[in-house]
Amino acid sequence: MNGIARKIILIAGFPCNLDLINLVNEFDADLFIGLGDIECPQFIRNFIGIIGDMEDVSVLKYLRNTDKYLEKYFNISSDFSTNIVISHYPPKGSITGIISGVKVGSQEVTAKVLSNQPKILFHAHSEVQEEYYINNTKVISIGNFSKGYYAKYDSEKGEVKLARVVLP
């Protein structure tokens, strides 16, 4: 990919389903960023991302071997070295870390948010799609694509829109 992508779609919880792959590949996006639990990233165009809990080791190998594992992409990182950060896990105690009615979250993510104070933290590992703040950090749960949830990020304008699509 040449230059920075402006129209970015963030997804998580994406099953390997041909209808869903075709659906997202038709989205108006320059880049897709996966926040984990993406079962077949090799079929999503212009994809980079991190892993979650549900992928097998072949997904990690694919992302590493093809340089699609996102550690840092312009102002977006998974290591908290930039102002825009992605994480599979929500911060511990967050209002968005909920799966099947159970609260989930990572103390490590909370500590990194508090010490690094990124402008935006996008996270997955949640059935909830919502935005809130931890101090000055906007925390955005993108939700789970298996329920139609995803997020749009305009890197040029710095705008985020939570979205939902009706699944086939």
Automatic annotation (TrEMBL):
Start and end residues of each Metallophosphoesterase TT1561-like domain: 52-165
InterPro entries the record matches: Metallo-depent_PP-like (IPR029052), TT1561-like (IPR029461)
SUPFAM superfamilies in the cross-refs: Metallo-dependent phosphatases
Highest taxon listed in the record's lineage: Archaea
Protein name: Metallophosphoesterase TT1561-like domain-containing protein
